[in-house]
Amino acid sequence: MSDAQTPPRTPSTAPRPDTTHFGYRDVPVAEKQKLVAEVFSSVAGKYDLMNDLMSLGIHRIWKRYFVGTAQVRRGDRVLDLAGGTGDIALLLRDRVGDSGSIVLGDINGAMLRVGRDRMTDQGKVGGFEYVQMNAEKLPFPDASFDLVTIAFGLRNVTDKDAALREMFRVLKPGGQARVLEFSEVKADWFKPIYDFHSFNVLPRLGTLFAGDRDSYQYLAESIRKHPPQDELKAMMQAAGFARCDYRNLSAGIVAIHTGYKA
């Protein structure tokens, strides 16, 4: 798809109550989780390589900033949702120290295994728990965590409002939730370049290095369907979070959203 064919960003709400978006396709709500699972099972082995190729390595800077500006202290208990290959959990480990703990959660078992194996290979075995879970229904009691993070995972959740409510529920009073996600590019001059990269370069990289064009086409489409900055901020407020705010990085390619439990 060329940039001339790229549809404009549309509202993230589903067109009918019984359907939701899977990229630009409308699919039954019950099917989205399965389709997303197939995408991430397909790309799990090449996930880190593809992130470097797609972002020219800039995703590492985004993640470091995301963790470096988080409200977290030694001894804290952290939940990292959509933990994937463990990038965020690994960066958080030094922040929480030996007295803290991190639960690395992901709905996709293949991604979770990649993260666990990666930690083991690096000798990082203490202080981590690995739990396969659905962000829409977290298997933890109320007020369990000092910090909840989700990086590049919220856009793949079928019911984002439910996931945000669950993040709020499991936070301790005074705790912080942070969302790192692709968002809406704000610089008009950059939008055509970004669209060309998304719909022409990414699928070709997927074909070349991962043998999977469709998954990276979905990636580009899912970004356009994700709620833009102010809409996601309003969703966090509706979920109960206080002092909600966001910071754009790289002209809005990604944004960090923050909210607190009063």
From TrEMBL:
<comment type="pathway">
    <text>Quinol/quinone metabolism; menaquinone biosynthesis; menaquinol from 1,4-dihydroxy-2-naphthoate: step 2/2.</text>
</comment>
<comment type="similarity">
    <text>Belongs to the class I-like SAM-binding methyltransferase superfamily. MenG/UbiE family.</text>
</comment>
<dbReference type="InterPro" id="IPR023576">
    <property type="entry name" value="UbiE/COQ5_MeTrFase_CS"/>
</dbReference>
<keyword id="KW-0949">S-adenosyl-L-methionine</keyword>
<feature type="binding site">
    <location>
        <position position="106"/>
    </location>
    <ligand>
        <name>S-adenosyl-L-methionine</name>
    </ligand>
</feature>
<keyword id="KW-0489">Methyltransferase</keyword>
<dbReference type="GO" id="GO:0009060">
    <property type="term" value="P:aerobic respiration"/>
</dbReference>
<dbReference type="GO" id="GO:0008425">
    <property type="term" value="F:2-methoxy-6-polyprenyl-1,4-benzoquinol methyltransferase activity"/>
</dbReference>
<keyword id="KW-0831">Ubiquinone biosynthesis</keyword>
<dbReference type="GO" id="GO:0009234">
    <property type="term" value="P:menaquinone biosynthetic process"/>
</dbReference>
<dbReference type="GO" id="GO:0043770">
    <property type="term" value="F:demethylmenaquinone methyltransferase activity"/>
</dbReference>
<feature type="region of interest" description="Disordered">
    <location>
        <begin position="1"/>
        <end position="23"/>
    </location>
</feature>
<dbReference type="Pfam" id="PF01209">
    <property type="entry name" value="Ubie_methyltran"/>
</dbReference>
<comment type="pathway">
    <text>Cofactor biosynthesis; ubiquinone biosynthesis.</text>
</comment>
<feature type="binding site">
    <location>
        <begin position="134"/>
        <end position="135"/>
    </location>
    <ligand>
        <name>S-adenosyl-L-methionine</name>
    </ligand>
</feature>
<protein>
    <recommendedName>
        <fullName>Ubiquinone/menaquinone biosynthesis C-methyltransferase UbiE</fullName>
        <ecNumber>2.1.1.163</ecNumber>
        <ecNumber>2.1.1.201</ecNumber>
    </recommendedName>
</protein>
<comment type="function">
    <text>Methyltransferase required for the conversion of demethylmenaquinol (DMKH2) to menaquinol (MKH2) and the conversion of 2-polyprenyl-6-methoxy-1,4-benzoquinol (DDMQH2) to 2-polyprenyl-3-methyl-6-methoxy-1,4-benzoquinol (DMQH2).</text>
</comment>
<keyword id="KW-0474">Menaquinone biosynthesis</keyword>
<keyword id="KW-0808">Transferase</keyword>
<dbReference type="InterPro" id="IPR029063">
    <property type="entry name" value="SAM-dependent_MTases_sf"/>
</dbReference>
<dbReference type="InterPro" id="IPR004033">
    <property type="entry name" value="UbiE/COQ5_MeTrFase"/>
</dbReference>
<dbReference type="GO" id="GO:0032259">
    <property type="term" value="P:methylation"/>
</dbReference>
<feature type="binding site">
    <location>
        <position position="85"/>
    </location>
    <ligand>
        <name>S-adenosyl-L-methionine</name>
    </ligand>
</feature>
